[in-house]
């Protein structure tokens, strides 16, 4: 196994690994350590069946179902993240951490590329450890005691789901989910602090009016995705990205109108942020 760091902020590419033959305990431990060290990892040339993809996911954590979209036939934990040639809005096309509107947001998520456009469709990732650590001491003290309110119904995010809900939605797809989480969370495995708000789902700050919380949140939303906190993945077919939802955000770039982009996604169970 070889590891190549891809940016100063986060991200590493792992080569020399073929996941189609299964994942040993030792290999799983090695991959998991690279994941914790670099927050998002990439593995190319992984032409996996859905069952082989599930085996890898189960070696990394406990798969969970996505609340809005049905899974593949026979694989309820694998959903298609796709944009078809005639569509103009891409699924989840906004900076976000996955499903922070749940009481226990995911530990991580992984994508396996099935069809990619001839250009475009990259995914950006942002390191929320660095976003927190670069704040002033005064701002850190202010944020450490605050609780964010997450909602699944923020308008800009709901729009990115509309095409998939029409084609693959669950019966309860229009339900709103809400949860409260610390604005700054402590990673349960590394012990590092990370910002845990995002423009897609964080709707306010507990105990504040919208007018009071908006300047704080708008500052954080801009700050936490500064270029120096990010890396960028250019997709190829049969590539996997696996990111730590507890300390990163991601944003799929919507710059490939007229082309199909189809990914398989598995989300892994997490714990309640503290």
Shape category: globular
CATH A-level architecture: 4-Layer Sandwich
CATH superfamily: Clavaminate synthase-like
Mean pLDDT score, rounded?
A: 94
Structural class: alpha+beta
**CATH topology category name:** Double-stranded beta-helix
**Terminal Cα span:** 34 Å
Q: From the structure provided, what is the oligomeric state, counting identical versus distinct chains?
A: single chain
- CATH level 1 name: Alpha Beta
Explain how this protein is built.
With 274 residues, this protein is α+β, with helices and mostly antiparallel strands. It has a single domain, classed as Double-stranded beta-helix. Helices cover 24% and strands 27% of the residues. The strands form 4 sheets. Strands 1, 2, 3, 4, 5, 6, 14 and 16 form an 8-stranded mixed β-sheet that branches. The radius of gyration is 18 Å and the shape is globular. The two termini are 34 Å apart. The mean pLDDT is 94.
What can be said about this structure in brief?
The protein has 274 residues and is α+β, with helices and mostly antiparallel strands. It contains 6 helices and 16 strands.
List keywords for this structure.
single chain; 274 residues; Double-stranded beta-helix; 3-stranded antiparallel sheet; 16 strands; globular
Q: Strands, helices and their partners?
A:
Elements: E1 2-5, E2 12-15, H1 25-38, E3 40-43, H2 50-60, E4 63-64, E5 78-83, E6 108-115, E7 123-127, H3 128-133, H4 137-143, E8 147-151, H5 155-168, E9 178-182, E10 184-186, E11 193-195, E12 202-205, H6 210-223, E13 230-233, E14 240-244, E15 248-252, E16 261-268
Parallel strand pairs: 2-3
Antiparallel strand pairs: 1-2, 3-14, 4-16, 5-16, 6-14, 6-16, 7-13, 7-15, 8-9, 8-12, 10-11
